[in-house]
């Protein structure tokens, strides 16, 4: 009798014969598996929130935008801007998207990892650069949501973590990429931050109309890190489509691994509806040379489906939708209580995100739910199971 049909099998027995998850670079994950993506979010997409969303079928997560110049120059910036853990990436059953010829054999041209801290925990000194959490030595790896594959084509895949930087020059970006490379699966260049201070500094959306500079920055990272390293850009659409076209052609010529497209212009507030036609235009400009991710107004699972159908993107990126409901990609219509509880558990273990974490505690207490009792540690938060107790 298979262990999976034995009603008395323990949880550890059920999970005992899992294959090792594939470690695919983001471009392959996007090309073949249609992943769900957490957008970069200043102040919000920090470690506890990234780990939380990874428990609910968010396969690629982004750090908040960090300033490459500060990050590469100052230890204090590295420590305050970035922390990660060996557990923050999830493990998922994923099925190759239709039309994909690959089941992700892990032998793709980009399957390169540079000096990951877990390769040799005893000898590296990289922890001096950033805060890196490791689980107790007796803890197992992250687990998928279920011990068995949902269908015959499903394979076990590990999620990706991308660091997003803002930079006005190629050297700072390459320096920052090199420093952070042991901890992430790639870097992303912010070409969309619309704030005036950013524009005046020549970063964020100021880059939307500086295609040669974007090209040089991507090239700079490529030259420093090699072709195996993932470098992407996140853009906004331009009211003048020719500008979008020029930007994309330059970025492609420099060798971006994938493209993320926010379907609003620099001057549009987020209250304006996302322009799916604008995203589709950008995807068509790419002509399939690299996979694309679409971003804007993803509030429900239906929005995820519509984004793919109407624009041709492979990945779907949510920002405010995941802040409102971190379990959005698992098709929960609103935030389940266990997500709130998990978030408190994660943020008390990793460090609070103010005022986010305190709001979550207030939310639970207002419903008479006791977050102090039966609280799991982060190292128990491996599959996103509920840990809530009601008083
Ligand atoms: C609080 C907040 C912080 C953000 N921080 C970043 C950032 O660091 N980098 C970035 O590229 N975009 C940032 N954005 C933009 C989002 O990534 C996303 O492009 C935008 O919110 C549109 O997606 P949505 O309609 O799903 O919210 C931020 C948005 C919000 C609401």
Automatic annotation (TrEMBL):
CDD domains: DUS_like_FMN (cd02801). GO terms for molecular function: flavin adenine dinucleotide binding; tRNA dihydrouridine synthase activity. Residues 160-331 form the DUS-like FMN-binding domain. The keyword Oxidoreductase applies. SUPFAM superfamilies: FMN-linked oxidoreductases. Transmembrane segments: none annotated. Its cofactor is FMN. Keywords: Flavoprotein, FMN, mRNA processing, Oxidoreductase, tRNA processing. Residues 107-125 have a biased composition (Basic and acidic residues). Residues 91-125, 133-152 are annotated as: Disordered. InterPro entries: Aldolase_TIM (IPR013785), DUS-like_FMN-bd (IPR035587), tRNA_hU_synthase_CS (IPR018517). It holds the Pfam family Dus. It catalyses: a 5,6-dihydrouridine in mRNA + NADP(+) = a uridine in mRNA + NADPH + H(+); a 5,6-dihydrouridine in mRNA + NAD(+) = a uridine in mRNA + NADH + H(+). GO terms for biological process: mRNA processing. The keyword Flavoprotein applies. It comes from the Eukaryota. PANTHER family: TRNA-DIHYDROURIDINE SYNTHASE, TRNA-DIHYDROURIDINE(20A_20B) SYNTHASE [NAD(P)+]-LIKE. This is DUS-like FMN-binding domain-containing protein. It comes from Kwoniella europaea PYCC6329.
């Amino acid at each position: 009798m298979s262990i999976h049909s034995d009603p008395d099998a323990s949880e550890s027995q059920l999970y005992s014969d899992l294959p090792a998850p594939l470690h695919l670079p983001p471009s392959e994950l996007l090309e073949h598996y249609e992943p769900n993506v957490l957008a970069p979010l200043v102040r919000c997409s920090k470690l506890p929130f990234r780990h939380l969303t990874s428990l609910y079928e968010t396969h690629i997560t982004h750090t908040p935008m960090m300033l490459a110049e500060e990050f590469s120059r100052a230890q204090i910036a590295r420590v305050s801007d970035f922390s990660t853990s060996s557990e923050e990436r999830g493990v998922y059953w994923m099925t190759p998207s239709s039309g994909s010829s690959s089941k992700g054999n892990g032998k793709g041209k980009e399957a390169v990892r540079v000096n990951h801290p877990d390769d040799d925990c005893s000898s590296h000194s990289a922890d001096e650069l950033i805060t890196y959490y490791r689980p107790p030595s007796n803890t197992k790896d992250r687990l998928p949501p279920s011990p068995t594959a949902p269908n015959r084509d499903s394979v076990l895949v590990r999620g990706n973590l991308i660091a997003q930087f803002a930079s006005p020059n190629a050297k700072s970006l390459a320096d920052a990429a090199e420093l952070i490379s042991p901890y992430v699966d790639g870097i992303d260049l912010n070409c969309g931050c619309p704030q005036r201070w950013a524009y005046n500094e020549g970063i964020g959306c100021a880059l939307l109309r500086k295609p040669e500079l974007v090209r040089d920055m991507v090239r700079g990272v490529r030259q420093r890190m090699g072709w195996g390293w993932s470098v992407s850009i996140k853009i906004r659409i331009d009211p003048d489509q020719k500008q979008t076209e020029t930007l994309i052609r330059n970025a492609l010529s420099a060798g971006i691994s994938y493209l993320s497209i926010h379907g609003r212009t620099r001057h549009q507030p987020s209250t304006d509806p996302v322009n799916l036609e604008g995203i589709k235009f950008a995807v068509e400009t790419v002509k399939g040379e690299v996979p694309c991710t679409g971003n804007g107004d993803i509030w429900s699972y239906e929005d995820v489906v519509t984004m793919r159908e109407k624009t041709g993107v492979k990945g779907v990126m949510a920002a405010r939708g995941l802040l409102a409901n971190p379990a959005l990609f698992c098709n929960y219509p609103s935030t389940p209580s266990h997500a709130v509880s998990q978030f408190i558990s994660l943020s008390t273990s990793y460090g609070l995100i103010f005022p986010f974490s305190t709001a979550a505690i207030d939310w639970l207490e207002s419903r008479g739910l006791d977050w102090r009792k039966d609280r799991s540690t982060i190292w128990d938060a491996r599959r996103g199971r509920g840990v809530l107790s009601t008083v």
